[in-house]
TrEMBL record:
Organism: Steinernema hermaphroditum
Protein name: Beta-mannosidase
Function in brief: Exoglycosidase that cleaves the single beta-linked mannose residue from the non-reducing end of all N-linked glycoprotein oligosaccharides.
Family as reported in the entry's similarity comment: Belongs to the glycosyl hydrolase 2 family.
Residue ranges constituting the Glycoside hydrolase family 2 immunoglobulin-like beta-sandwich domain according to the UniProt record: 233-325
Gene3D superfamilies according to UniProt: Galactose-binding domain-like (2.60.120.260), Glycosidases (3.20.20.80), Immunoglobulins (2.60.40.10)
């Protein structure tokens, strides 16, 4: 009680000796191009594209048509941002006046009243600098001269080549990306120079908040700290960053109100420096409620606040939230008597082995300075709601916004966190290494308190790139590439990360062989070896609906296949006349080299072609129509969904099982990719307009805690009941039915058996009866507990070839009613078995900003009627929905009339 009172008193105390002036806003900053041709008011935080749109220099959304190419000049231009601000008497009377910048994008010099203040070289750096001596009473001016990021990268690459007698690959992205070169030479979001799923928008601007903080005493910049378990206790290693105006000592209190903790730390602060004050709070583990990933328990979080008592003043930090949980990365040999079989690779959270189920996160937008709270919330909720427990923050993106980590903490989404290096080799000169060290120190310190962060990985695919010889550079032999790689990730980054954060594991790369990579010196002979660490797996040639296509890895952190957005999404960014698959706008958005043909081939290996069209003749005119494109877009999405199901279930079936060569014990399935930054054919399961693609609905079923997954081998069906539950299901009944297209909903074959389902494992279930030849059947497996309640969803296995022109009968939506403000219920009735049913809200409703998802969708109808709930996620105009606002189609007719 006493603690609480002190706490309230301190929080309420007026911070009289400090003055803050926010330098953000939309009515103070001006921007102009280096040559003075474009100019106007700017918004801070913001980016140059938003500013140019605001003032009308750009008249169209950069994401439309081929604007990324038309607007290339923006990234190749130097931009100047400036504003005036007033230093009033009270502020001028302070002798410490700090300029605090949370992020500049990217390379530029900052001046106040023509005095040079600092140079920015990195989008992920932050700056706190005493600028008192540059200030004057009254009017002051701050100017930031940004260099074009494209030119800067280009010049840096050339200089490096001159000094080191070799270039650092890659030079440029493939020409069809319409991207910029040498992203590896500038420390900004690597994909802002283009990627295979996104356009090139090399942003410039003041992308994070900026303010002036004047003080006579001190300014508390940041509270941070990681939580580790030691014996029976948790230890919160608190770090407080205080910029002090004077040399003095301070009494610091760190409060964790829920635990009634008031920890006193005495600190000696040095004048005119950022002081790092540390303290350890030891808490018996029995006193706390653990934080769990989604599906395993509550996401218990605790507020932590620090208050520094200073010269009679109390300076309060921002409140952070921490969680108590342990992380263990298990990498023991699968068979100690035969180490060549490889090592396990899985994570235990609070002692429970967790199968990582999820996807890969790319930046929420090409324009990350803008406010994307709602979009981010939607995407993370979409991950949580379908049972994901993990996302990989991919290394070509960014250290995310604070709110991203907060949402992941609250939703129980574990984050496999790459550091921001991707698909490239990097310079290793002194300047680059110190630049990177500051970046990593800043960012890890900023976010390490978040319980959702599971692991750091040094980069995306750079080890793989060396070994798979992605680039042959005569003057830069592989041996030297390896040496440089080791210098950057093993000798520089790894010790730094370990020093900054000993509360979670560090991996040199993703994918890597984990411990094996370390034992091989940092670059493994075969980083893609499925017996060690994680793998990324892509295949454009083989049948993706057949499990035998896939490896049996320990952990799959990337895999996927592309699909096209539906017409309604595309129509907001291209003209209707471009809605055919070889139109210049559609080709423009397909960055994956060869992607147009591989998607066509993949899709029509499983589905029938629309009558009359033969896309193997590339310009067959009957395929080059909007109708074909509409149908093809649906089919590509259905194909993607089934491929993700087959691959993910394959991984899940290998949970806790090894083959005779020691492969197996697979513990991760993170498909590539969750989200999109533009409307284009990509690997995402949620399109740019936030429509869940069929793959996302499939994921809800294939990521369910218990699945009944079928494997057909030599015409024999086996059912694997894979359980991520922590308790066994004894006396479960497993049923298997075979259905056909023309026997209504009556199975032509049924069998069942009773088994015990072991927790946290994959349980192969054998049937006594001989099973049917499964080629043309829809197979359905179900699991029931001992009280005859179904566990999980129907397991469905569709035939390898599906008649996408067939008539699957009439589908009817009925009994539509509003259940709550945001939920509607209805039934779907079918006449016969339908392989895939697709429900949607009508385009006219989407046009009014409605984003909705369904409790189930893209499902096989194997009973006459199912009940579905529609959940309205965004509804800016507060529309009331009617049953006529829904559309329904099936595999045979989706896209036949435009939806
Ligand atoms: C991997 C990723 C990304 C890429 C994806 C699809 O290489 O790491 O770089 O977008 O595959 O090609």
């Amino acid at each position: 009680m006493v603690t609480k009172l002190i706490f309230l008193f301190l929080v309420g105390h007026v911070l009289s000796a400090s003055i803050r002036l926010d330098l953000g806003g939309s009515d103070q900053w001006m921007f102009r191009s280096g040559n003075g041709n474009s100019t106007g008011m700017a918004t801070v935080p913001g980016d140059i594209y938003a500013d140019l749109l605001n003032v009308g220099v750009l008249t169209e959304d950069p994401l439309k048509g081929q604007n990324d190419v038309a607007l290339r000049w923006i990234g190749r231009t130097n931009w100047i941002y400036e504003r005036k601000f007033t230093v009033d008497k009270p502020m001028y009377s302070k002798d410490t006046v700090l300029l605090v910048i949370r992020g500049l994008d990217t390379v530029g010099d900052v001046y106040i009243n023509n005095y040079f203040v600092l140079s920015s070289t990195n989008q992920f750096h932050q700056h706190v600098i005493n600028v008192r001596r540059y200030l004057q009473p009254g009017n002051n001016k701050i100017v930031i001269n940004f260099e074009s990021p494209v030119n800067n990268a280009d010049v840096s690459a050339k200089l490096y080549e001159l000094n080191n007698a070799h270039f650092v690959p890659p030079d440029c992205p493939p020409p069809n990306y319409n991207g910029e070169c040498h992203w590896n030479f500038i420390r900004k979001v690597q994909s802002s120079f283009s990627w295979d799923w996104g356009p090139s928008f090399p942003t410039t601007g003041i992308w994070q908040p900026m303010f002036i903080q004047a003080t006579d005493s001190a300014y508390v910049d940041r509270l941070s700290g990681a939580v580790v378990k030691q014996g029976d206790n948790f230890v919160v290693n608190v770090e407080l960053y205080i910029y002090s105006a004077v040399t003095d000592s301070s009494e610091i209190h760190v409060y964790i109100p829920k635990l009634n903790i008031d920890k006193k730390i005495l600190a000696k602060l040095k004048r005119d420096t950022m002081n790092k004050v540390v303290g350890a709070i030891t808490i018996p583990a029995s006193k706390v409620k653990l934080w769990w990933p989604n599906g395993y328990g509550q996401q218990n979080l605790y507020d932590v606040t620090a208050v520094a008592m200073f010269n009679g003043e109390s300076l309060r930090s921002e409140t952070i939230q921490i969680g108590f949980r342990t992380i263990e990365l298990v990498q023991d040999f699968v068979d100690p008597s035969d180490v060549l079989k490889g090592r396990n690779f899985y994570f235990k959270i609070n002692g429970v082995p967790i199968f990582l189920k999820g996807s890969n996160w790319i930046p929420v937008s090409s324009f990350p300075a803008r406010n994307f709270t709602a979009r981010m919330e939607f995407l993370l909720e979409s991950a949580r709601d379908i049972g994901m427990n993990a996302l990989r923050v991919w290394g070509g993106g960014r250290f995310e916004a604070e709110e991203f980590y907060q949402m992941a903490d609250r939703k129980g989404i574990l984050l496999w966190h790459d550091l921001m290096f991707a698909c490239a080799l990097y310079p290793v000169d002194g300047a680059f290494l110190s630049n990177v060290k500051e970046e990593i120190t800043t960012q890890i310190t900023r976010i390490k308190h978040h319980p959702s962060i599971l692991v750091w990985a040094g980069n995306n695919e750079n080890e793989l790139a060396i070994r798979q010889r992605w680039w042959i550079v005569g003057s830069y032999p592989v041996g030297q590439q390896i040496k440089d790689y080791i210098k950057l990730y093993k000798d520089t980054i790894q010790p730094l990360v370990k020093e900054l954060d000993n509360s979670r594991p560090f991996l040199l790369s993703s994918p890597s062989n984990g411990v094996e990579t370390e034992e091989e010196g940092g670059v493994a002979v075969d980083p893609a070896n499925p017996r060690y660490g994680d793998v990324h797996y892509y295949n454009d040639i083989s049948n993706l609906w057949t499990p035998s296509t896939y490896q049996i890895p320990r952990c799959a952190t990337e895999y996927g296949v592309q699909s096209y957005p539906l017409k309604h999404t595309m129509m907001q960014y291209i003209n209707e006349s471009q809605w055919f698959y070889t139109s210049s706008d559609m080709l423009h958005r397909q960055h994956k080299p060869g992607g147009v043909l591989t998607v066509l081939k993949q899709v029509f290996d499983h589905f029938e072609l629309p009558v009359g069209c033969n896309p193997s003749i590339f310009n067959d005119s009957s395929c080059l129509t909007g109708n074909f494109m509409s149908k093809f877009a649906y089919l590509s999405q259905f194909h993607q969904a089934i491929a993700y199901q087959v691959e993910t279930e394959h991984y899940r079936r290998w949970r806790g099982r090894l083959d005779e060569t020691g492969q197996g014990n697979t513990m991760c399935g993170l498909y590539w990719q969750l989200n999109d930054v533009w409307a284009a054919p990509t690997w995402s399961s949620i399109d740019f307009n936030l429509n869940w693609k069929p793959a996302h609905y499939f994921a809800r079923r294939f990521f369910a805690p218990v699945i009944a997954s079928m494997l057909v081998k030599n015409n024999v069906v086996q059912v694997f009941v894979v359980s991520d539950l922590q308790t066994d299901i004894s006396n479960a009944t497993v049923t298997l039915d075979a259905l056909v297209w023309d026997n209504a909903f009556d199975p032509v074959y049924s069998t069942r058996t009773t088994v015990d389902i072991k927790a946290l494992s994959s349980n192969p279930v054998h049937f006594d009866a001989s099973n049917p030849e499964p080629k043309d059947f829809v197979l359905r497996a179900r699991v029931f507990d001992s009280s005859k309640k179904q566990v999980g969803f129907d397991g469905i296995l569709l035939p390898d070839h599906l008649k996408s022109n067939a008539n699957f009968g009439k589908l009817t939506i009925g009994n539509f009613y509003q259940k709550t403000e945001t939920e509607y219920k209805f039934t779907v009735t079918a006449e016969k078995v339908v392989p895939i049913v697709w429900i949607d809200v009508a385009d006219s409703v989407k046009d009014r900003g409605v984003v909705a998802t369904f409790s189930d969708n893209a499902f096989a109808m194997t009973t006459a009627q199912v009940t579905v709930t529609l959940k309205v996620r965004q509804n800016p105009k507060k529309l009331k929905l009617k049953s006529s606002d829904l559309t329904i189609c099936h595999l045979g007719n989706c896209g036949m009339t435009d939806h």
